[in-house]
Amino acid sequence: MKNPLPRPNWHEHDSDEALLQASHADGDAFAVLVGRYEKRLYGLLWRLCPKPDELDDLYQQVWIRAWGARLSFEGRSKFGTWLYAIALNQVREWRRKQKPQVDIDSLPEPELRQPNALDRLLGRARDARLQAHLQCLSDKDREILSLRYLQDLDYAEVAALQKTSLAQVRLRAFRALQRLKTLMKERD
Amino acid sequence: MKHLDPDLIASLADGAAPSGDASAHLRACAQCRDELAELKALTQDLRRAPQPPKHLQQATLQRLGLRACKSGGWVLPRWAWAPALAALALAWWLPQQQAPAPIQSISQAQTQALAQAPAPAKAKAPAPAAAPVLAAAPTAIQAPVQPSVEAPAAVGAAPEAAPQAAAPLLHSAPKETPTPVAGFTVQVRNNLIKPGQSLALSVELPAAGSFLARVYDGRGRSVETLYEGVAGPGALILHWDAAGAPSGTYIVLLKSGAHSKKVQVLVAH
To answer: Which ranges in chain B belong to alpha helices (H)?
Structure first.
């Protein structure tokens, strides 16, 4: 006999925005979103937060903020964009607590973690160097490159998140890419 | 020779389609070509990210006061548990009170007498969900009762088994754990490339290792290597700018260890 009181299977819902709306009444819908965006959000925070031991807490803080703000989501942007905006705000808040504002050019050269034999075998050497060199870019450049390439957002979405014009974001991304390439070439 | 503007080269690495002049210059200028290749490799590196720790999702949901939502199945809301349990208990208890005689020795008259026997005095009025059980009791000695929570296995079952038989029905769901897939998975965003578009592939690598992605034309000739080196674990997004490639069918070969996949792409200029 069919159960007359079935619970919805939230995994079958394609739309993230519909799931967020449903989470007003059912927390299970939000849990599905947590699973769907786990890798993307973690990857973005990993690029922007150079301290691995604080990454997990930062990740959870983003979701806590998103959970608290879910009622205010109006559907004017995609859920992913909305979530990344929360993540960026959380990262900026975290940065403000970390250190006083200094000029990027006056920061000391970061120490590159020298890849060991295991890293070479696993091919993580280049990733470790890239991650270290990324810290030499400004916060804004790092955010733009992460949103564009790691999250695969188009420039219009990146510009909306950065609250700047499309042309500015594109130019900034291209210059940051060039600078990153130069850094990797000079120091490797 | 005047080289291409660095911003233009960066935009080409980003996936923009080159103009005729830019394409011609790239064919002639090795320095700009190398610069473009380096930037393209850099954009591929930027697309990689590590897997999050396994405990992180569960820890996050706990902190939010949520639970991991299993796919599929159904779960009773809390208000229905009490009447459902009462119905199950009754479904188990009733047959114990009106145990039929062995089939071989019972006569038809005795069967009818047993079927018409009133319900035991101790039976209490159940919650609304179990009302149909009481109504059917006099004639349903040998028929399974039908509470709102289906538990046919519990009727007539041993007392110790009934609660255990009920628990899975209330809390469990058909388990749909994802089947681990050997090798890697690839998703194609668009395999029909029109003018101004580029091919986008999303590759999910379960472990780190050597990885190759190469484009071949319809005659089996290598056109471009999208990626060659160590990659993973994690997601890798590959782009192929087909602006310089003639219209036709192409095959993207992706290989990781002993596993390989082919993706057919149609370029229509």
So the answer is: 6-14, 20-28, 30-46, 55-64, 81-97, 108-115, 131-136, 161-171
